[in-house]
Amino acid sequence: MTESTDSQDELEKSKTAVKQELAELTRLGEQLCQYSQARLASLPLTDRLLAAIAEAQKISSPPGRRRQVKYIGKLLRDIDLDALELAIRLQDQPHLEEVDRHHAAEQWRDRLLAEGDGAITELLAEAPTLDRQKLRQLVLAANRENTRSAPPKSARLLFRYLRDNLPEAAGK
């Protein structure tokens, strides 16, 4: 595209659309200010933008920080946002896998406590590396604690055991 068509596209945008884009860039700037320096270094950001983010992280005054975040949003206009968003998503991927693993452990814990030996047999078919005896002991202790209205220590231990030992395939 030529410069004249770029400027025509900008003229055709409504004020509302421009304001929405600026608000999105400001939100992205605020999000970037929450990241550590190590995480920021792995993102495709300019040196000027990294310096502005570092400065914003030092500012404790709300009005000053807000002004700096708006400046960061202005600087974000000059970089490839698609590449930045892709890099952020790729960084978040391990976190999302950990959340999935967490949910799988919660679901199996709940099933084991509700169904007992049948669920243990089914889980061991999917994850044969787990210890049947340990699972049974934890399930029985958790159910005893539940009937006595005691704190759910064994249920927590069961969850941790599942979270730490479930293979990827058994969680899905």
What tags apply to this protein structure?
about 170 residues; mainly alpha; Diphtheria Toxin Repressor, domain 2; 2 domains; 9 helices
Can you walk me through this structure?
The protein folds into two domains: 3-79, Diphtheria Toxin Repressor, domain 2 (Orthogonal Bundle); 94-171, PSPTO4464-like domains (Diphtheria Toxin Repressor, domain 2). Helix content is 78%, strand content 0%. The two termini are 47 Å apart. Helix 2 packs across helix 5 (62-76). It has nine helices and no strands. The chain is elongated. The chain is an all-alpha fold and 172 residues long. The model has no long low-confidence stretch (mean pLDDT 85).
Separation, N- and C-terminal Cα atoms: 47 Å
Count of domain modules: 2
Question: What form results from the Cα inertia axes?
Answer: elongated
- Largest sheet properties: none
What name does CATH use for the topology of the largest domain?
A: Diphtheria Toxin Repressor, domain 2
Indicate the CATH class of the largest domain: Mainly Alpha
Structural class: mainly alpha
- Uncertain runs are none
What is the rounded Rg? Answer: 25 Å
**Portion in strands:** under 5%
Beta strand count: 0
CATH architecture of the largest domain: Orthogonal Bundle
Can you say what the CATH homologous superfamily of the largest domain is? PSPTO4464-like domains
Helix content: over 70%
Write the layout of secondary structure elements.
Elements: H1 3-12, H2 15-33, H3 37-41, H4 47-58, H5 62-76, H6 81-115, H7 117-126, H8 132-147, H9 153-165
Helix pairs in contact: 2-5, 4-5, 6-7, 6-9, 8-9
